[in-house]
């Protein structure tokens, strides 16, 4: 159980930092617009990697369920954060931006804890 949770956290760092960096091109758009691919591709990165980790620890049934759940939850969390930061005009130079970013990360980590509790 602990190793599953730990690998979900490692997966999160890979998808949120390493893989997301490839989406920082104008052709992918912004996460504030539901019709641009950035939000969906980023959420798919998370979901597929979460599914792979889950497959190892819980089998195909849970891997499919948690992959779908992770896609939806990740997209919702990131979309809400992006819309909020735009509405209150936050950027990376703002102290409040980093507080919002911390809440965003806590929401994602809480999802991973929920997945662990679901399969164990």
Description:
The chain is mainly α and 120 residues long. The chain has one domain (2-119). It has helices spanning 2-19, 37-87, 95-119. The longest helix has 51 residues, at 37-87. The chain is globular, with a radius of gyration of 15 Å. The N and C termini lie close together (7 Å). The relative contact order is 0.15. The model has no long low-confidence stretch (mean pLDDT 93).
Mean pLDDT: 93
Query: What sort of overall outline do the alpha carbons produce when their principal axes are compared?
Result: globular
**Total number of helical segments?**
3
Parts with pLDDT < 50 across at least 5 consecutive residues: none
User: What portion of residues is helical?
Assistant: over 70%
Query: How many β strands by DSSP?
Result: 0
N-to-C SSE string, H for helix and E for strand: HHH
The radius of gyration is 15 Å
Oligomer: single chain
What is the count of distinct domains? 1
The main sheet comes to:
none
**What fraction strand?**
under 5%
């Amino acid at each position: 159980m602990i190793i599953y949770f730990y690998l979900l956290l490692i997966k999160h760092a890979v998808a949120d930092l390493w893989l997301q960096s490839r989406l920082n091109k104008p052709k992918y758009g912004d996460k504030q617009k539901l019709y641009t691919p950035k939000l969906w591709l980023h959420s798919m990165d998370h979901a597929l990697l979460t599914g792979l980790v889950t497959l190892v620890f819980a089998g195909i049934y849970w891997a499919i369920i948690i992959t779908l759940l992770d896609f939806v939850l990740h997209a919702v969390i990131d979309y809400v954060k992006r819309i909020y930061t735009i509405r209150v005009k936050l950027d990376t130079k703002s102290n409040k931006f980093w507080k919002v970013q911390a809440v965003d990360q806590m929401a994602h980590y809480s999802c991973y804890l929920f997945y662990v509790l679901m399969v164990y």
